[in-house]
């Protein structure tokens, strides 16, 4: 299934994001999470991608296994980091051979220990170049997604420049966008309106991460509404209360987004099922999925 075709139905999508594990214990945790969330029958899941060879191989393995064994459509993240166009082309060919038809085209973050992104000789500098390359290689046989930043990319000087960069991705052939996480829905609605005014007309799926600890919002750089900040402070030392607050806030966010016309929600799971499963249950109980 091409994700662009699923989104074209007009029915809101529910999707999850996983990351390649870095240890045997983490691998076992991921397997449990996939099993527990697969029963919810999400429309698709995505698997993040590392620049290192071992992590890259795990992405390919996990995406293929999810499609084959869990029966869920899986999208592979693909970045420009540390690879030439030829190497990236080989990776795409392997994904296609494994039946993967959906790719999230990203520039990618600098490798660990580096502060700036450096383009590999013979590689790509920006996500729009990667999207254009995928289209030139496979045409419309693949569905290509891209990232969007409601509060702008951290490296971008201003919102206007960020939107122009985003328009280049869409013009290069991106079918849909998934946003960076946010905790205030006004960020999404205002961003969506600015994007439409810029001529960006593809579906923009909100990315939501349920809060699981008090430090999480600061770690990801998203602004926090004052009322939520106060609640976080009040239960800072109560892990159970924090989890409950995170699920409640994420559920309220998702319900508002879906009722307001968002094409779906993409839940960042951190490879754990509890919060994502509880948010999904809350949305089902509210009658929005």
List keywords for this structure.
single chain; 289 residues; alpha/beta; TIM Barrel; eight-stranded parallel beta barrel; 11 helices; 8 strands
Number of domains: 1
Could you tell me the mean pLDDT? 93
C-alpha geometry:
globular
What is the helical fraction, as a range of percent?
Answer: 40-55%
- The string of secondary-structure elements, in order, is HEHEHEHEHEHEHEHHHEH
Quaternary class: single chain
| CATH domain topology | TIM Barrel
Secondary structure elements and pairings:
Layout lengths: L2 H6 L4 E6 L5 H15 L5 E4 L5 H18 L3 E6 L5 H13 L4 E5 L20 H12 L4 E6 L10 H13 L4 E6 L3 H13 L6 E5 L7 H5 L5 H9 L4 H21 L4 E5 L5 H12 L4
Parallel strand pairs: 1-2, 1-8, 2-3, 3-4, 4-5, 5-6, 6-7, 7-8
Helix pairs in contact: 5-6, 10-11
Structure description:
The protein has 289 residues and is of the alpha/beta class. The radius of gyration is 18 Å and the shape is globular. The chain is built from eleven helices and eight strands. The longest helix has 21 residues, at 239-259. The two termini are 20 Å apart.
Q: In short, what is this structure?
A:
This protein is an alpha/beta fold.
